[in-house]
Design brief:
Order of helices and strands: EHHEEHEHHHHEHEHEHEHEEHHH
Keywords: NADP, Oxidoreductase, Porphyrin biosynthesis
Structural class: alpha/beta
Pathway: Porphyrin-containing compound metabolism; protoporphyrin-IX biosynthesis; 5-aminolevulinate from L-glutamyl-tRNA(Glu): step 1/2
Shape: elongated
Largest sheet: 6 strands, parallel
Strand content: 5-15%
Family: Belongs to the glutamyl-tRNA reductase family.
Number of strands: 10
GO molecular function, one term: glutamyl-tRNA reductase activity
Distance between the termini: 22 Å
Enzyme class: oxidoreductase
């Protein structure tokens, strides 16, 4: 029986953020679960992907292990009531559906922001984690490299990844473009609510920037900034931090503007100061642009760019799906070949064993020259005998009848006998 590729998924489509936060796995937790899956179930092809929007496990096995895997996740997270979370998981036990889901996730078709560029990097890291633990066999290696090649095609052949379709990433692109001539631009992020947190995480795409984070709740600022390696500024020191910053990103919730023209006028601005207001209602007075050197962008300015990018991405989806379909078909052709390879190898071993036994029986007294001639003749005969069943096996793959043909050839040549020499 063919081992099936399977998947289980908890995502923004099946679970609210409160549940996703509970189930989300750290790199260390993923590593421990991978090791347990290897020890308990002898799994060799496993991929665990965990982001803010999804926690998914992909694996190859002839049995559905989804409940056992979810229990392992619960054990790792210290959740004694993990059975209560089963309803949030989607289970993919159909081989082709699971593979298709992995492609769609990896390309960004299933992301909250369609075409999200971050997901492809997250999938690469998940694959690397499996490879490091030797939990990626030939099947997963081939599958992942097909995924990466497909992603490359989509970037080169479509508009699916052009422009920034999320507000937070658009803000990062804006900062990058406007500070391109500034050495190590100093950035201050004020407020780490939902938008601010997303912006902070995207700041990793500005590796040369010096980022500081401030928030009314210091603990929340430390929680977000710490893992990212950013400096935390106590909220009471916010104004001093604003004076030093080249870029101020504000996503604080306030009924009245937090940053006013009068405040900005007090600052010395030697070249420029970029202000980005991601708050609704707005937290920066629009009149700050009257101050020489000040550049202001708000949600509407940035969102117009994201809307245009999103329209392009949505228009590209049919072509993206066509490319994915081609890649899956190509992968399946390889997968079918892999299915018959063990039978072909067994057949070769069986015929070679017969050939060697007969040579040993009848060529005991032959000289070296005679033996070489007969050896060559019998090898040629074996190759010709092999040709027909091998061609038939590969043809059966294309007709999806490989299992039946494998059974026929195994019975015909007695391939399951235990005395076949390795």
């Amino acid at each position: 029986m063919q081992i099936k590729f399977r998947a289980l998924s908890l995502s923004h489509k099946t679970a609210p953020v409160q549940i996703r936060e509970i189930i989300a796995l750290s790199d260390q937790e993923i590593e421990r679960i991978l090791i347990k899956l290897k020890e308990f179930f002898s799994l060799n092809d496993v991929l665990i992907l965990s982001t803010c929007n999804r926690t998914e496990v992909y694996y190859s096995h002839d049995l559905d292990l989804s409940t056992e895997i979810i229990k392992l996740v619960g054990l790792e997270k210290g959740l004694h009531d993990i059975v209560n979370y089963l309803e949030y998981f989607q289970i993919y036990n159909d081989d082709r559906v699971a593979i298709s889901h992995l492609f769609r996730v990896s390309m960004g078709l299933e992301a909250q922001v369609v075409g999200d560029i971050q997901i492809s990097n997250q999938v690469k890291r998940a694959y690397q984690a499996s490879a490091d633990l030797e939990m990626a066999g030939p099947f997963l290696h081939r599958l992942m490299h097909t995924v990466f090649f497909t992603n490359k095609r989509i970037v080169q052949e479509t508009s699916f990844r052009e422009g920034a379709a999320s507000l937070s990433y658009a803000a990062i692109e804006l900062i990058e473009s406007l500070t391109s001539n500034t050495y190590q631009p100093r950035i201050l992020l004020i407020g780490v609510g939902e938008i601010g947190e997303d912006v902070a995480k995207n700041m990793v795409y500005l590796p040369n920037a010096q980022v500081k984070v401030t928030n009314r709740t210091l603990a929340k600022a430390e929680e977000i900034a710490g893992p990212l390696g950013f400096e935390v500024v106590p909220f009471e020191n916010c104004v001093d931090a604003m004076k030093d910053a080249d870029v101020i990103v504000c996503s604080i919730m306030k009924n009245e503007p937090f940053i006013t023209k009068e405040l900005i006028k007090k600052f010395e601005i030697p070249s420029y100061k970029l202000l980005i207001d991601l708050s609704v209602p707005r937290s920066i007075e629009t009149s700050v642009e009257d101050v020489p050197g000040v550049i202001l962008y708000n949600v509407d300015n940035i969102r117009s760019k994201t809307s245009e990018a999103l329209e392009k991405r949505l228009a590209s989806i049919p072509l993206v799906e066509e490319i994915i379909g081609e890649s899956i078909e190509e992968f399946y052709n390889w997968k079918k070949e892999m299915m018959v390879s063990p039978t072909i190898n067994k057949l070769k071993q069986t015929l070679e064993q017969i050939r060697l036994e007969e040579l040993s029986r009848y060529m005991k007294n032959a000289d070296e020259k005679e033996f070489a001639v007969i050896d060559k003749i019998t090898k040629s005969m074996m190759q010709k005998i092999l040709k027909v069943p091998v061609v038939q096996l590969r043809a059966a793959c294309k007709r999806d009848q490989a299992e039946e043909m494998i059974e026929i050839i195994s019975d015909l040549f007695n391939l399951d006998r235990e005395n076949i020499k390795k």
